[in-house]
Design a protein that fits this description.
Layout (H helix, E strand, L loop, with lengths): L1 H7 L15 H18 L5 H17 L9 H10 L6 H4 L8 H4 L2 H5 L5 H13 L5 H18 L7 H11 L6 H4 L11 H25 L7 H4 L5 H14 L4 H9 L5 H16 L6 H6 L3 H11 L2
Cofactor: Mg(2+)
Protein name: Crystallin
GO molecular function: metal ion binding
């Protein structure tokens, strides 16, 4: 955080830099969004229809010369393995990884219109599992997409943590076999239900930390001290959501708070921005940001496609 403060000044006054380039988080979010758009253009969203275009988009991202934004090791290793079209995706998935790459990119799943609860949960977990196979990565991605969807539906932000906890308990033993196949067999868990419950339990712990932090954390204090550095998926969810909840009616301030932490600031900010944008809509952000942001065309067209 001292390095960020030295470069950008006081966090409440941070400005969008010039040029307004993005990180790997936004690149992979766009890759997922394009894959989802292609899959849904072909018909009802399901695992078979989703796998090919999303897998291709992830590999295209991996091979792109623009993939120079210090991406995480798990995404690089898994996407390299996904290049081999004969390899089953479950064999490419990194079963021991629950890095925040699993859910930093999941926002499009929460924004897509017309999905059933099963489709939304399955798609969120599936896109995570293509790279991050740990059950906590799957559960955190599911929770992140569910939170975004709830916010697009006008859910009361201060009741969101309770609704996410209820959702976690309801799904604690639900293994989405249609979407995940035999992924669980690559772990040491005895059953698919035990496998996925392990992930939900870790996310419930993070949500408990978040519930306490919402009541006690100071907006001026590094949010990572309350809910974790965000390097792992459940902490990225908790800390990204904390920054949003600290400044529900001030989305730009929430984003600045998220961008100035001691943790994985770009991923935390990516999620905080997703939550704020889902709740407030595109009007949350200054117009001049949209005029300057890298990948403006893709961001604007995909945003218009799924803008509620």
């Amino acid at each position: 955080m001292p390095a960020i403060l030295a470069k950008c000044g006081p966090w409440r006054q941070m400005k969008l830099p010039r040029p307004a380039t993005v990180t790997d988080d936004t690149q992979m979010t766009l890759a997922l969004a394009r894959g989802l758009r292609t899959a849904m253009d072909r018909g009802l969203l399901g695992p078979l229809r989703m796998e090919r275009p999303v897998r291709e988009e992830f590999v295209n991202w991996y091979q792109s010369p623009d993939n120079n934004r210090a991406p995480g090791r798990t995404c690089l290793v898994a996407c390299n393995l996904l290049k081999n079209e004969k390899r089953r995706w479950q064999e490419a998935s990194q079963i021991g990884s629950k890095g925040c790459g699993a859910n930093m990119r999941v926002a499009p799943v929460g924004l897509v219109r017309g999905l059933s609860d099963e489709q939304r949960a399955g798609a969120a977990q599936f896109q995570a599992a293509l790279t991050h196979g740990h059950p906590t990565a799957l559960a955190a991605a599911d929770l992140t997409a569910h939170a975004i969807w709830l916010l697009t539906q006008g859910a009361e932000p201060m009741g969101l943590v309770g609704r996410l906890r209820s959702y976690a308990y309801e799904n604690r033993h639900r293994y989405h076999s249609r979407w995940l196949g035999d992924l669980w067999t690559f772990s040491e868990d005895a059953t698919p239900e035990a496998f996925i419950a392990r992930g939900w339990d870790e996310c419930l712990g993070a949500l408990d930390d978040l519930r306490h932090a919402v009541r006690t954390a100071s907006p001026e204090t590094d949010p990572c001290l309350a809910t974790g550095g965000g390097w792992i998926a459940e902490e990225a969810l908790a800390t990204g959501l904390l920054c949003f909840l600290l400044f529900v009616d001030e989305p730009v301030t929430a984003l600045r708070r998220a961008a100035c932490t001691s943790g994985d600031s770009d991923s935390i900010a990516c999620l905080t921005g997703a939550f704020a944008g889902a709740y407030h809509g595109s009007d949350a952000w200054p117009t001049e940001w949209a005029d300057r942001i890298e990948y403006q065309g893709d961001l604007m067209s995909l945003g218009a496609l799924w803008d509620a």
